[in-house]
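User: Show me a protein chain along with its predicted structure.
Assistant: Here is one chain, sequence first, then structure tokens.
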Amino acid sequence: MDKPALILWALLGIAVVVAACLWANRPRRVNIDAPLPAAFPEQGFSHDAFAGLLETYVSADGRVDYQRWHDSREHVAALDGYLAAVNAYSPDNTPERFPTRNDELAYWMYGYNAWVIKGVLMNWPLTSVTDVKAPLEVVKGMGFFFQLRFPFGGEHMSLLRVENEKIRKGFRDPRIHFVLNCASESCPVARPDLPTGEELQELLAAAAVEFVNDSDNVFVDHKRRTVFLSTIFKWYKKDFVNHMVALGRPAKHGLLDYLGTVAQEPLRDDLQQATDYAIEFRDYDWGLNSKD
């Protein structure tokens, strides 16, 4: 067989393999068939139904009682009702229901968190969201965050797309990384309070302070001259540094400059002493954030 024929056959083989991979990992649509929550408003968008469920199943330390929620047909149905609203209305298909940017952001963040919980419940029991695997799992979490497609405003999207396109690109506020919950130990805690409007800014600020000042997420070891950080700061470093630049405060020391704007004493002082320290990112714990 001559060389051009060999190349042609090789390309054909590659095309077959790629096609097989795409077919195996084709999107798995999740559909919702439920009535809207009782007394859902004719204008605006209410997160009250979801907030009530979170108050019932989220503990004081932010863990979720998935087992008890899964066992309650009434409350699984109530979550489905809220998700039916997420499917029916969005800033894309009914912008009049979301009069402010804060209302839009609240929809995408809370909808994301609600679909994460639904994804866990529909695959229960789980020890990690990474247990939901794509047939060809080339990246950890691909099955849950990419292959599953959830409806937002009538359009099925992966959680990865919602996070990156709708939330990160759409709002460019790094504090969202302290509110989005991926149902894992190393995620920010689940929060029952779901404010909208101007009050959303208060939630974002409080979530940032809480996350950064938790030694599990930011810790300065002066003896080892090392700053230990949550892997979230590695994955989304660009978001935090670019935020500083957008504020007209160039991040000479990268992540440490951002952290210094949120840190409280004594962490703030520790970070000021650590500008020439090494940075290490802690392993991400994908274990389920379930209540024992």
